[in-house]
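Bug #77: duplicate submission created two jobs. Keeping one. Sequence:
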Amino acid sequence: MKNKYGLSPLQLLLHIRIQKAKELLTYTNFSINKVAISVGFDDNAYFTKQFKRIVGTTPTNYRKQQQINKI
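Kept job's structure:
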């Protein structure tokens, strides 16, 4: 069953978690592990894999790019 976004409920939840992780990476100094835990991932490696699959880059590189964009 897909919703109006064309995603299954599980996929939608994953995208929402990744969106929140992007906010935490941009606006906090939380470690990658703390970000992962904060958005509901128990496994840092799985979080990084899913983040890269959806965003196209690792959480670390995403954070670095966001810091460059703030300057």
